[in-house]
Amino acid sequence: MSEFEDFRAGFVSVVGRPNAGKSTLLNAMVGTKIAITADQPETTRRVIRGIVQLEAGQLIVVDTPGLHRPRTLLGERLNDMVGEALSDVDAVALCMPADEPTGPGDRFLLDLVKKTGAPILAVITKMDKVTKDALAERIIEISQMHEFAEIVPVSAVAGEQVGLLASLLLERMPLSPPLYPRDSVTDETEEDRIAELIREAALVGVREELPHSIAVVVDEMEERPRREGEPVLAIHASLYVERESQKGIIIGRGGARLKRVGRSSRESIEAMLGRQVYLNLFVKVAKDWQRDPKLLGRLGF
Ligand SMILES: Nc1nc2c(ncn2[C@@H]2O[C@H](COP(=O)(O)OP(=O)(O)OP(=O)(O)O)[C@@H](O)[C@H]2O)c(=O)[nH]1
Q1: Which atom of ligand 1 lies closest to the CA of 65?
Q2: Which of 58, 118, 173, 278 has the fewest CB atoms in 10 Å of its CB?
Q3: Residues spanned by CATH 3.30.300.20 within the chain?
Q4: CA separation (Å) from 168 to 91, 120, 162?
């Protein structure tokens, strides 16, 4: 009998309108921080795979950028990524918040994911935000939308029913040996994850169009020997904005804001890597990068 005879492994697409709680759910399922979260909608830019390692199998979770009407080339690319993320999945988790009624965005997404032919599980996110009665009503409302494979209320923040959701998804995965090493949590590179942590820190408290103008690239990482103890990891990263005026906002009076961003991203990078790092952040202007195909490519889109 082979080691993985009853093992299941497959791909799950997590979809939902902006701010539905997809990234928080993904992090809770994986058990570590893979996707960054923020209060502003449309924080998620790239398709991130988180790998949920379970006793009896592996869920490769694809996090999709919130669907929205494309206004820029970046917007169009994001929507293309949603299409790619949806092809060839074994199950879809359609996230809808408990504290907001069903809207046209949810129905649009439902029609889109129906085309995959994969089982669709309705996930009612943020259940901690509503009363039991309100949740019961929301379940009824969602059950009338479509014949879902399951309707699962969860709270990623409180960790409620996240494990149940994972096992309901796993039941729908094909029998397969592990698709990724048993100890990996993502297929993102370390550089990408570091850049995302810096972007997350830079997003705190910024408003209007600025969040979409920020991109982060890790330029270089080097081991720096020290006279005593372990070497320190030096990270050089560039934080791009689209206009000179935005540079001032990011840097802040006397560099105070940039210092805060540097400190908090260094702390989260150290927590992720479990070691001390030295972070060197540069703020640069890449004029209108969201509309410039060459710059988009260079910034990793
Ligand atoms: N109370 C509560 N808040 C939650 C829960 N899950 C997510 N949130 C909050 O909802 C907001 C949006 O969460 P995200 O996970 O970034 O949402 P998203 O769907 O990935 O958003 P996009 O990147 O816009 O697609 C954040 O402020 C989260 O803290 C939950 O279970 N309970």
Answers
A1: 25
A2: 278
A3: 190-299
A4: 10, 11, 10
Give the global pTM: 0.67
Q: Whose CA is nearest to atom 7 of ligand 1?
A: 21
- CB of residue 23 inside a 6 A radius of ligand 1: yes
Domain spanning 8-171: CATH 3.30.460.80: no
Residue 133 Cα to ligand 1 midpoint, Å, equals 22
H helices of the chain, in order, are: 22-30, 73-86, 104-114, 132-143, 162-171, 190-203, 210-213, 244-251, 256-273, 293-298
288 closest CA partner among 258, 221, 243: 243
Instruction: Locate CATH 3.40.50.300 in the chain.
Output: 8-171
Query: Which atom of ligand 1 has the smallest separation from the CA of 156?
Result: 31
Query: ipTM > 0.85?
Result: yes
Pocket test for ligand 1, best of 13, 14, 22, 24 (most atoms within 8 A of CB): 24
Give whichever of 75-79, 80-84, 277-281 has the largest mean pLDDT. Answer: 277-281
The Å distance, Cα 227 to ligand 1 centre, comes to 44
Q: Which of 27, 37, 78 to mutate to test the pocket of ligand 1 (most atoms within 8 A of CB)?
A: 37
- Determine the residue of 13, 17, 19 to mutate for testing ligand 1's pocket, defined as the one with the most ligand atoms within 8 A of the Cβ atom: 19
Task: Look up tokens 């030295």; give the residue.
Answer: 278
Q: Tell me: the pLDDT tens digits for 217-276?
A: 999 999 999 888 888 999 999 999 988 888 988 999 999 999 999 999 999 999 888 899
Split at pLDDT 50, 70, 90, the class of 301 is low
User: Which position has the token pair 């060459």?
Assistant: 294
Spelled out in words, what is the top-level CATH class assigned to the domain 190-299? alpha beta
Task: Write out the H or E segment, with its range, that includes residue 277.
Answer: strand 277-285
